[in-house]
Amino acid sequence: MRIGVVSDTHLTSFAQVPDRILLALVEVDLIIHAGDFVTRDVLDGLRRLGEVKAVRGNMDSDELKQVLPEKELLLIEGKRIGITHGSGSPYGIDDRVGRMFEDVDVIVFGHSHHFQNEIKKGILFFNPGQARNSFGILTVGKEVKGEIISL
After folding, report:
1. Which domain holds residue 90?
2. pTM > 0.85
């Protein structure tokens, strides 16, 4: 399964999403957004492209904060994927998001605006970075592989 991963879009309109991201997202089986849409229009637009799993971020509207969870846990092809936005300083964010989940294979997060595709203690920490600069693709099968795509 191929999963398109975005975070920190920080946009007021779906029309502002970079074309390169949109072209990639129409080709995946699932879209994950790790928070900081800012407005509902971006979420609604992504849902027109395909199935979306999303969490709220600290910069999201009150409306989004009411309809999106703080964290989500997905089971895909036997792999447990935790999703959260993250909080606080970029320093130590891995530890903070790591404490939010137990027994996971992958943690997808955002917040820091810095992409990350790194295995630590057997867990893939995957941050696609800020959407104006990068996004990610997770390929889930016997293993989970992450790819960061710079814009």
Report:
1. 2-150
2. yes
118 sits in the region (left: phi over 0; alpha: psi -120 to 50; else beta) called beta
Q: Number of structural domains, the chain? A: 1
pLDDT digits (tens, 9 = 90+) for 104-113: 999 999 999 9
- 129 CA to centre of own chain: 9
Residue 90: pLDDT band by 50, 70, 90 thresholds?
A: confident
Q: Which residue has the tokens 């502002």?
A: 16
Residue 92 CA: distances (Å) to CA of 30, 52, 72, 88, 115: 29, 28, 21, 9, 14
Residue 35, SS3 per DSSP:
coil
